[in-house]
Amino acid sequence: EDLPRVDGHRRGLLNDSVESNSSKPVPKIVVGSKAPCGRYPYMISLRDEDAIHRCGAVLIDENWALTAAHCLDADTTLATSQILYIGGCNLNDDVVSGEIEVTRPQGVFPHPSWMGQLQQGNDIALLWLAHASTHQPIALPSAFLEVGKGEILVALGWGADGNGIGDGNLQEADRLAAISNAACAAPSLWGDVIKDSMLCAFGFINGQDTCKGDSGGPLLRAFSPRGNTAEGIPKGDILLGLTSFGDKESKCGESDKPGVYTRVSYHRRWIDTVIESEGQYDEVPKVEKRVACGASRELCGISYSLQPCLNCVE
Prior knowledge:
CATH topology: Thrombin, subunit H
Helix content: under 10%
GO molecular function: serine-type endopeptidase activity
Shape: globular
Protein name: Peptidase S1 domain-containing protein
Keywords: Disulfide bond, Hydrolase, Protease, Serine protease
Radius of gyration: 18 Å
Number of domains: 1
Distance between the termini: 33 Å
Structural class: mainly beta
Pfam families: Trypsin
Order of helices and strands: EEEEEEEEEEEHEEEEHEE
CATH architecture: Beta Barrel
Largest sheet: 7 strands, antiparallel
């Protein structure tokens, strides 16, 4: 049986016609809205040598950022050179004001198990910044943090809408519903493509989705008092995923298949190992498996408000 056709470049690199100086007033994240300026200071525009936005990234530490590994593949314009614009609201914001930090990475670390195939997972890379950032980073999840079925999540990006157009403003899709990997792996959806290292989310209600240029950007549990992200604070947000791929057969927001994201908690031990060793590590840390616990057979830590079970690790 053929696997579904995946498209990282639909959710990934912008084509050359969608440049950072586009003035067309169309949202980029599909059916999203303009993000409140300053609400997401950890958001990064990853650009090439011509200052064209190609992918998203996210600040996780004053010296480190995460993005999707496929953004840095050998056939991309980011393969040999990357410029990070940290903390902007619009792709055309003036960097002279000092509100936006511009830096390059002194080290780039794709996951060693990334083989250039989105279906195989591990679509994640660390960027070691040449200069420390003063912007607020986003919190990382614990290795055992689970996302509840139906939990409402937020995706961020400067990518294109379903027609390949963007207006330069940072967009948020704030009504994405998480679905379990078991449901996402149904034959009618992604089937065997889905791995433990992936996370699925879908705009069930209104067709929200990520699109071109959003890859590497964050999928997060936003601190949203009264359900309003604008009232939240960056310190309360938790990074859950990185935009990875979608359905090649449909426009963004029109597919019956959920968007697929890299599950950050799955890679937490690797992230910590790279940061602590500054990239000089001998082997990839083993991923500790979650196991079912108790008579209820619920997975450990299925709700972030509950303490994980004592027998979480095999």
